[in-house]
Amino acid sequence: MEEQIVKQIVKQIENGPQWRVTLKEAWPLCLSYIPIGLACGILLHTSGFNTILTGLVSIFVFSGGAQFMIAQMLTTTAPILTIVLMLFFLELRYALLGSSLAGYLKGQNNRFLFFFAISMNDENYAINYLKFVTDRNWTPKDALQVEHWSLLVWTIANVVGSLIGSAVSIDLTVVNFALTALFLYMIVMQLKTRLILLISVVAGVLSAVFMMLTKSTLGLVISTLIASFLGFMIEGYVKKRWPNSHLLYKIHDPSGQPEVDKEDIDI
């Protein structure tokens, strides 16, 4: 604790007040949130959320992908249970992201950790992780302020988008297009190896099959679970038995070399 106080004093002497230091790190992220937040607010309003509910969802969910999904699934009258399950599995990655920051948050009380956890998303995680690794004066309080700056701008953008949505008529088909484009982008960014491409295709086929069998969006939850466990099992088996398998080759690597995880390298 004393070390953190010393770091804070040094930072204020060198760079000014703490809020100015954290805002300097967060403002590029905050600017990028404005157009996406406006679009998200408009879509949430179109799917039935009033301005107050839009603000609350922005604060308590704080995830562009999740909020776009909520808007899309509500327009297709998906059951609440299905929406909750999809949100759970979509946001489960934060358990892994948060665990990678645990070492930098030692000594913080449970109240601090609670507010830190509910304010974290992919983008502010990336900023804080980089700062923790490269800046020895970066403190947990600095990281929390970065999260709160991004949360504030995101919420304001969503609320303003909701107000715009109340004044402008939006075709509901736009919601489906926006979510499809978002998740297609997320898939493309994850396509590093041929194995991931194979599992993505399998997941798409399973989604269609289980949605026809269940006749509801619950089939998406089932297919997601099956594809995830299938991919995990195949990857572990292939890496163990055939480490030079073509399934592990990088898609964009002209040399065609298998992808090697950092944990697989002996240092």
How do you describe this structure in short?
This protein is mainly alpha-helical and 267 residues long.
Model description:
The chain is mainly alpha-helical and 267 residues long. It has 12 helices and no strands. The protein has helices at 2-15, 18-46, 51-60, 64-75, 80-90, 93-101, 110-118, 122-134, 140-167, 173-190, 194-214, 218-241. The longest helix has 29 residues, at 18-46. The protein starts with a helix and ends in a 26-residue tail after the last helix. Residues 262-267 have low confidence and may be disordered.
Write the SSE topology:
Elements: H1 2-15, H2 18-46, H3 51-60, H4 64-75, H5 80-90, H6 93-101, H7 110-118, H8 122-134, H9 140-167, H10 173-190, H11 194-214, H12 218-241
Helix pairs in contact: 2-4, 2-9, 3-9, 4-10, 5-12, 8-9, 11-12
Distance between the termini: 32 Å
* Radius of gyration, CA atoms, in whole angstroms: 21 Å
How much helicity do the residues have? over 70%
How many helix segments?
A: 12
Number of strands: 0
Q: Roughly what fraction of the amino acids lie in strands?
A: under 5%
Please describe the structure with a list of short key phrases separated by commas or semicolons:
267 residues; 74% helix; globular; disordered C terminus
